[in-house]
């Protein structure tokens, strides 16, 4: 059994234990491997039989209790939950699986990592992988699915979400953020780039032109309470209440007819969704900045400071630490 599967299984066991403690009778069934998304099976927890599966590249796990119409998608990809090619492929596989299905009305996106929701797009290149600029095209397609599928997507954020991580959060239908643990931001301008997957378009729409200038230009993090105040997230919630608050809201929505939920989302999108051409305009403005004499040395220094995107002080406090690329 892969280490990543062990970690995810352990997280899911703890999550179920804390959320539905009164229903849990035996957690031993979590000890085995999580099945593939293409062949899910049930793991019994008392009277509840959640269907658990792992996406093909192992970076996203899903868990659904039959009859609940709620699916939790849980990110787990290395020490900082980096958005790299395996995670992008798993994200697209997951969103595509939600077409032409009837068992999920609400998706809750969350992280198995207590410090990182999703860190950022990885700048590391690997043999056999597309370049980061090419990977981003697939990410944009998957994020567009999130914003337009007739399924309600809720981001349950307890950890850092920067760069592409924040851009994913912004394209969810609703966002809940844990106080003291959530830090959101787009730091790209500090290293000679800009947010390239909808970050500018969505931030300008959600928080207004002036605040978008403030956060995109400075690259600073924003905490949960401030994010709630300016409209970046719907609600800031005490960390110990996050699962309960998000779960209760999802359960409320899951009671309603799927046709009404889908029609409401479609109509709200018709009057307010950032047009996809604006997301692609972000991308088309970002690509020419990549690898240029003014950006490449800064990106290279950031990789060195972050120890090639490893867990450490730089990644934890990147909204401030990014200024070290100028030292």
UniProtKB/TrEMBL annotation:
GO MF, one term, reads: catalytic activity
Q: Return the protein name.
A: Uncharacterized protein
Provide an example Pfam family for this protein. Answer: ECH_1
Highest taxon listed in the record's lineage:
Eukaryota
The Swiss-Prot or TrEMBL record describes its family as follows: Belongs to the enoyl-CoA hydratase/isomerase family.
**Matching InterPro entries:** ClpP/crotonase-like_dom_sf, Enoyl-CoA_hyd/isom_CS, Enoyl-CoA_hydra/iso
Work out whether the entry's keyword set contains Signal.
yes
Q: Which residues form a coiled coil?
A: none
Q: What is the lineage of its organism?
A: Eukaryota, Fungi, Dikarya, Ascomycota, Pezizomycotina
Keyword line? Signal
Please state the span of the N-terminal signal peptide per the UniProt entry.
Answer: 1-21
């Amino acid at each position: 059994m892969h280490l990543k599967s062990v970690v995810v299984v352990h997280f899911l066991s703890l999550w179920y234990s804390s959320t539905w403690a009164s229903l849990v009778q035996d957690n031993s069934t979590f000890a085995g491997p999580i099945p593939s998304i293409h062949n899910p099976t049930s793991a019994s927890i008392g009277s509840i039989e959640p269907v658990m599966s792992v996406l093909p590249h192992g970076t996203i796990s899903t868990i659904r209790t039959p009859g609940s119409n709620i699916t939790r998608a849980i990110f787990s990809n290395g020490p900082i939950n980096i958005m790299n090619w395996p995670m992008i492929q798993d994200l697209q596989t997951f969103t595509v699986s939600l077409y032409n299905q009837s068992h999920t009305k609400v998706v809750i996106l969350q992280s198995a990592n207590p410090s990182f929701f999703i860190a950022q797009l990885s700048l590391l290149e690997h043999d056999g992988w597309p370049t980061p600029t090419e990977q981003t095209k697939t990410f944009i397609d998957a994020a567009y699915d999130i914003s337009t599928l007739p399924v309600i997507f809720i981001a349950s954020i307890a950890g850092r979400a920067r760069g592409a991580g924040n851009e994913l959060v912004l394209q969810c239908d609703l966002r809940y953020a844990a106080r003291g643990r959530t830090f959101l931001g787009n730091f790209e301008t500090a290293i000679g780039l800009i947010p390239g997957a909808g970050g500018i378009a969505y931030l300008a729409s959600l928080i207004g032109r002036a605040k978008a200038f403030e956060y995109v230009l400075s690259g600073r993090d924003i905490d949960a309470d401030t994010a709630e105040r300016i409209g970046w997230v719907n609600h800031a919630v005490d960390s110990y209440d996050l699962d309960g608050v998000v779960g209760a809201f999802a359960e409320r929505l899951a009671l309603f007819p799927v046709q009404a939920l889908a029609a409401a989302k479609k109509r709200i999108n018709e009057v307010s969704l950032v047009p996809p051409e604006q997301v692609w305009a972000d991308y088309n403005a970002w690509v020419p900045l990549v690898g240029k004499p003014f950006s490449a040395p800064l990106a290279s220094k950031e990789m060195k400071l972050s120890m090639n995107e490893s867990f450490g002080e730089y990644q934890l406090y990147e909204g401030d630490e990014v200024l070290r690329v100028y030292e």
